Amino acid sequence: MRRVLSGIQPTGQLHLGNYLGAVRNWARMQHSTDAFFCIVDLHSVTIPQEPGVIGRESLRLAQMLIAAGLDPDVCTLFVQSHLHEHSECAWLLECTASFGELSRMAQFKDKSGRQEFISAGLFTYPALQAADILLYDTNDVPVGADQRQHIELTRDIAERFNYRYGETFVLPTAVIPSAGARVMDLQRPNDKMSKSLNSPKGTIDLLDDPAQIQKKIRSAVTDNGADVRFDINNKPGVSNLLAILGAATDNNPEDLADEYRQYGPLKADAAEAVVALLAPVQARFAELEADPAETTRLLRTGADKARSIAAETLARAKTNIGFLPEG
Ligand code: TRP
Description:
Helix content is 54%, strand content 7%. The chain has helices spanning 16-29, 41-44, 53-67, 84-94, 99-103, 106-113, 120-134, 148-165, 210-218, 236-249, 253-257, 263-290, 292-321; strands at 3-8, 34-39, 76-79, 140-142, 173-175. Strand 4 (140-142), helix 8 (148-165) and strand 5 (173-175) form a beta-alpha-beta unit. It is globular. The model has no long low-confidence stretch (mean pLDDT 96). The protein binds tryptophan. Tryptophan is lined by residues 5-7, 40, 43, 129, 132-133, 141, 143, 147, 150.
């Protein structure tokens, strides 16, 4: 079975784009792969955090992920900061990546441009991400297209480490969903639905109630002309609604386009489909929220499972470098 790992930061709410673009696929993949999902709270402190908030956010994200279908009995769900192995391995990989490579990362350029205080951690962030991946001998990393560069860097770092110190790490591959599977912002359909866009009317939160979902979809931006076509370049707003309806009902958006002549009925059906899709996720979340000790217990089991693998890989890396054993 192929080993799969992905990571997600515990900052901000999960939205429909995260669910349809990533988490629902993770939930499907967990049955056919050996899947690891990491709540990457150490990555979140690359940007200053309000004291005490991050832990609550991690718990909440774990509850959302389980509600959205990640089954802790099937996959390994864990919190990055519960394992010291990630930080320790990140150091070894920071010393394997070059300053030039890290300087070329588009996400660093983008994030540092928006930051008043640019931490050294924001710069070395991809080495920590490489540790997340390499510690588990990961084969496949399901991520959005914006992460392709980080996975390629991870491969380069792993190759260089193996060349310097001998065979240690497995080289991972990025698995990127097709552009058509992307959910776009309802108000700015040329941009991906995203926490960082700060577009509350364009973003459907997984915990939005039916009235909020209906309102957001009803006021979604549509395009010039009144015909319903799946045409991402010329009709991004309508195509996004077709993509959402298609993803929510497991239909192909091109086929759905033939069934509609006007925007109104398309919006009504898309809203209804999203409400129905999210209802069971919201119900499960409410149960988990009422019993936080249960999620804490599940995360502890996840961390134990993760540690049994990560500790072995880290020990192999240290042995191959040839550090003096403690004796
Ligand atoms: N950098 C990723 C993002 O911004 C999150 C992440 C951290 C990740 N560690 C990972 C993704 C390991 C995949 C594998 O989305």
